[in-house]
Amino acid sequence: MIRAVAVALCAASLCALTGCFSGCVVGPRAQIEASLQIQADAWNAGDIPAFMQYYWNDPALTFSSGGETRKGWQATHDRFVRRYPDKAAMGKLDFKVDQVEMLGSHAAYVLGRWHLTREEPIGGNFSLVWRKLPEGWRIVHDHTSVLPP
User: What's the mean pLDDT in 139-149?
Assistant: First the structure.
């Protein structure tokens, strides 16, 4: 059973990494969840550029957090770099997906929770809007909140 789950996750990860979903046997939900796991793995390796690969690289990307909304991939990237300048600040990221709601064949709404294990732990909720673009599933809107400790 564990091996079957590992094989399915590897297949979904490969599909997500290559952007080649047409030949994959996994559905959009599994592709999105695999992409989130790849993001967490990149974060945990201290690799913000790899983490950012699943955000739409476009000026129309929106990221809302802390009462502010930033527009664009570069502004989102720069916020992560500024807020998490080193591996100690980044900690270990865990995502828990609570809901994936398909909004047609090329869009999805994802609700979940995030947690950073570090010297001062932090966590909260997120809602993401994903779109299936030519390069694969990408986050086009991220609304992340921080829960009080």
Answer: 94
Query: Which CATH number covers residue 18?
Result: 3.10.450.50
From first CA to last CA, the distance across the chain in angstroms is 37
- The angle formed by the CA atoms of residues 75, 127 and 122, to the nearest 5 degrees, is 75
| C-alpha span between 119 and 86 (Å, rounded) | 13
CB atoms within 10 A of CB 73: 18
- Does pTM top 0.85 for this prediction? no
**CA pair distance 139, 44, nearest whole angstrom:** 19
Length of the chain: 149
CA pair distance 38, 53, nearest whole angstrom: 10
Cα gap 24→16, rounded to integer Å = 10
Closest CA to 120 of 149, 97, 85, 140: 149
**Nearest Cα residue to 57 out of 135, 149, 146:** 135
Containing domain of residue 105, as a range?
2-146
Q: How many domains does the chain have?
A: 1
Average pLDDT estimate for 27-49: 97
